[in-house]
């Protein structure tokens, strides 16, 4: 269950990055030219290039993928992530869904519920003493 939760989280992060980056590749030259540095009108009025940056590289996609990769790494070591990992991802998805609809934010509750369930099952299982 933990492995699938990690895979889903990585998938959602990468899906967001790819689907938002492809239509915004035209802004990359302006990013490399320094257009994102010290915008003329401050950060209150975003240029299309700045908006494209925050939609792609500056978005949640990379950190979300990293969280998924960490969950997968923990699973490979036989460690179940703490329940707060699932709760945090789920509550973040809820906040995003409440503020931006329609959006797929609420989908993160699938892996979040998997992580919470795995943590609860682990907490209920008595630990066995290591063999001497």
Could you explain the architecture of this structure?
Keywords: Membrane, Transmembrane, Transmembrane helix. The chain crosses the membrane at residues 52-72, 79-100, 106-123. The chain is mainly alpha-helical and 132 residues long. It has one domain. Helix content is 62%, strand content 0%. It has six helices and no strands. The protein has helices spanning 2-21, 28-32, 48-55, 61-76, 83-99, 109-124. Helix 1 (2-21) packs antiparallel against helix 4 and helix 5 packs antiparallel against helix 6 (109-124). It starts with a helix and ends in an 8-residue tail after the last helix. The mean pLDDT is 91.
Would you spell out the secondary-structure blueprint of this structure?
Blueprint: H1 2-21, H2 28-32, H3 48-55, H4 61-76, H5 83-99, H6 109-124
Helix pairs in contact: 1-4, 1-6, 5-6
